[in-house]
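Worked problem 6 (solution included).
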Amino acid sequence: MPESFQIAIDGPVAVGKSTIARILAQRLGFLYVDTGAMYRATGLLALREGVDVEDGEAVATLLRTHNITLATPQGQQNDGRKITVYLDDEDVSWEIRTEKVSTASSKVSQHAVVRQQLVPLQQEIASKQNVVMEGRDITFRVLPDAQLKIFLTASEEKRAGWRHQEVMARGEDISLEQIKKDLKERDDRDMNRDVDPLHVTDDAWMFDRSDFTLDEAIDEIETRARKLWHKNET
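Solution. The predicted structure is:
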């Protein structure tokens, strides 16, 4: 059992993992870790350098010469972002949130050589402090001994609606139908990739938030987390 208290959240894209995990971490006083941001930064790096995102070895080689770090937003960084992401010394927190980078991150995350570089970094972070960590392989690959494992899900219709609102708010002009198409393709890649496909572990709490408001969903998760956390401390 890890010395730190670890909350691991997995689930498909556009289900609200980042928002829920970030607010939950704030309520508990834990560190929020968005592992997907690391893959997004990797995807952005590949796009910038003209490296084929389908070529795992090339992406991994590129990644070895750059640093990706995460930080809690401070001061002027409290501009609505969920987490601050640095690619080397550059703040790329907003640039990694575009649909183009999202597609690239989905592709680079399929490569075992890329995941082998990023997973140890994620595990090191969680070993030193209480964390709420979210992604698509956290419950079974990154934090297999987490005290609370959650598989967060929702209907495809709800997820598409949430994502559409998000991208429109950022000023991106994209139709709801295109969002639905992109989500389906992303789900297919995540669930059928050769390395660590997205799935529900036997010991994970499967939480469907389709009929919950954001606050209601967080309240439900916080209640369970606090019970387990206090039990762990006694």
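Discussion: The chain has a mean pLDDT of 93.
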